[in-house]
Amino acid sequence: EIVLTQSPDFQSVTPKEKVTITCRASQSIGSSLHWYQQKPDQSPKLLIKYASQSISGVPSRFSGSGSGTDFTLTINSLEAEDAATYYCHQSSSLPWAFGQGTKVEIK
Amino acid sequence: EVQLVESGGGLVQPGRSLRLSCAASGFTFDDYAMHWVRQAPGKGLEWVSGISWNSGSIGYADSVKGRFTISRDNAKNSLYLQMNSLRAEDTALYYCAKDSTPLIAAAAYFDYWGQGTLVTVSS
Known about the structure:
heterodimer; A: mainly beta; 4-stranded antiparallel sheet; B: mainly beta; 7-stranded mixed sheet; 11 strands
């Protein structure tokens, strides 16, 4: 069973700052790593697929990188509307797994 | 527009059963695998179960294996989760999520989510 570990668990950031969230897999998962954003009282929303592929309608300030076991979600120039919890998700092998989440707060 | 609408949640005593449903619209339902993902209050996301487009391939999290059964009715564009022997730790918001491929082990992702239905297991 693959375990995903995100860091940090929490980040308090001022607007326009850059945010970096990492996700580490317990074994290699290639590029089968996806990122979701969940705002309070909302369902998760797909942000990035296959580690670095952008999603239509998602602002270009969101980007992803990595492969194998180490992955990064970057938010360039954070906006107030980006306050949310971010999750990574692996679909390399069953059971599919999520990271524990990273909560981003706006200062 | 893709819509996933869950129903069937509620308050249930430990050891009892509950059946969740997910009504899908806005896409060709039998072209895609479907999943259930849950979120305990104040906690993170946990994949529960997935089913391929033709029900030929099914997977479960270890935490629910032997107690939960996923199924689908392509004629009714509906996904189901039969939950038996419920425990307090099954208390969560249960989301229906659409896979991006027809298969459940295809390195895919969830491209659409419902709003969830709340299951509370308590005496």
